[in-house]
Backbone:
């Protein structure tokens, strides 16, 4: 079962009427049942469920102990309890990353799906209890729902307890706006996945698999398309999670804010994977001292944050280098633009930011750091001497028809993003129309995705990129 499978939406169709027919105080149990059904369906080994359950139990007990000692004046004891709780809860993720870092070829590890996301969720939960910001959840089943909520467990967003718990545990009224809004988001998520991400993947996978046979503009195009693929793939999963949640009356936080419109690497990270960026800020950067101890210390803190970000995304030097590219870029920006004073025009800053981000994505996507560096070298050495040839381009995994559909879909994405940047809420405008117009537009979009979406041989809509992290 995946977020794009028929079985997933069949499960949703079964859960929805039960959810709204039960008394409000019991409706969270339907969400818990859905989470258990979903996780059981994606298991590849029973040990995955055991690890998840043990992690939930360990963090639940840790939270209870930390919560009881939150008013204690013994700071050393309180910090020790927090460190122990975090270490025990994060141990499966730490072991997994360590093994992969020192044995890169090892693929036969039994790791629960979503472990990178729910581990950060737990760390934030325990830390917030330690700080006295929230109280530990007493109901074990409610806590289990918070950790395993099925629309977001695989790829986020990474929620905070104070953000999500009330929405999960309180029963919501059946409202047309939630059903229509949820369906609109689901349709948009399928558009992003099937019309852009999975179609761009064909060219990207072909070029990255045989990059030594290509140079210049072919690699540049692969870098651009991978940047689009990763963004639309991750955004689609977030939008699908938001859409399904809204069907139950639950609003999930936004995780993206048009990151490729950013005019600096720093601004890019305020717009990209917002829940991770804010997590790194609140639980790594600020505890290290943030910007309170001078520029030198601030720069070290920035590097530490992106070292953690790189290691969170994967085990290997390429992820560390990718993280350092973003960290060093932010430091250079700060040095070159003291006090936030802009030197270059806005469009040049955006282009430069896109280039830096794209080069980082090439290293991120390559099989190894060496491959990524070689690809970037081939890009620059051949960009002028090797022009794109149409016959060669359409033999690299994507034909003329697929290319036209991809270009048109990207233009639609750009237009929607541009309008949203200008404060125009497209869904709000659609919802203000007559209900016949709303449904005709929705059915038309479904028909277009059905006809033009990336189905058939060569496509695998079950695989989301960030599901591997």
Residues:
């Amino acid at each position: 079962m995946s977020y794009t499978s028929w079985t997933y939406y069949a499960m949703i169709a079964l859960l929805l009427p039960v959810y709204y027919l039960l008394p409000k105080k019991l409706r969270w149990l339907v969400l818990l049942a859905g989470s258990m059904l979903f996780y059981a369906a994606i298991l590849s080994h029973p040990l995955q469920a055991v690890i998840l359950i043990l992690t939930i139990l360990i963090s639940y007990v840790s939270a209870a102990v930390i919560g009881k000692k939150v008013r204690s004046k013994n700071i050393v004891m309180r910090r020790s309890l927090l460190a122990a709780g975090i270490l025990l809860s994060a141990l499966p993720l730490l072991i997994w990353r360590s093994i992969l870092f020192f044995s890169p070829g090892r693929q036969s590890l039994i790791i629960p799906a979503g472990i990178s996301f729910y581990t950060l969720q737990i760390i934030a939960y325990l830390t917030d209890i330690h700080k006295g910001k929230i109280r530990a959840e007493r109901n074990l089943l409610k806590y289990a729902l918070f950790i395993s909520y099925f629309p977001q467990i695989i790829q986020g967003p990474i929620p905070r307890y104070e953000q999500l718990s009330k929405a999960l545990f309180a029963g919501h009224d059946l409202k047309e706006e939630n059903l229509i809004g949820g369906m609109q988001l689901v349709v948009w998520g399928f558009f992003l996945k099937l019309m852009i991400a999975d179609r761009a993947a064909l060219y990207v996978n072909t070029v990255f698999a045989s990059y030594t046979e290509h140079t210049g503009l072919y690699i540049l195009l692969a870098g651009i398309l991978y940047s689009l693929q990763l963004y639309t793939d991750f955004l689609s999963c977030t939008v699908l999670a938001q859409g399904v949640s809204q069907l139950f009356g639950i609003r999930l936080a936004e995780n993206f804010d048009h990151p490729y419109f950013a005019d600096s690497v720093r601004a890019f990270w305020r717009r990209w994977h917002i829940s991770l960026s804010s997590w790194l800020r609140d639980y790594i950067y600020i505890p290290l001292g943030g910007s309170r101890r001078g520029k030198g210390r601030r720069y070290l803190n920035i590097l530490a944050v992106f070292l953690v970000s790189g290691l969170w995304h994967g085990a290997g030097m390429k992820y560390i280098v990718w993280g350092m590219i973003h960290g060093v870029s932010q430091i250079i920006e700060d040095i070159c633009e003291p006090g936030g004073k802009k030197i270059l025009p806005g469009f040049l800053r955006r282009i430069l930011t896109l280039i830096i981000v794209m080069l980082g994505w090439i290293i991120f996507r390559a099989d190894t750091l060496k491959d990524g560096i070689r690809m970037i070298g081939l890009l620059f050495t051949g960009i002028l001497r090797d022009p794109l040839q149409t016959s060669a381009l359409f033999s690299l995994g994507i034909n003329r028809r697929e290319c036209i559909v991809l270009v048109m879909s990207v233009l639609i994405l750009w237009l929607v993003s541009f309008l949203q940047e200008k404060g125009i809420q497209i869904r709000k405008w659609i919802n203000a129309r007559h209900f016949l117009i709303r449904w005709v537009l929705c059915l038309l979009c479904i028909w277009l995705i059905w006809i033009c979406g990336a189905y058939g041989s060569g496509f695998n809509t079950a695989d989301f990129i960030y599901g591997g992290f």
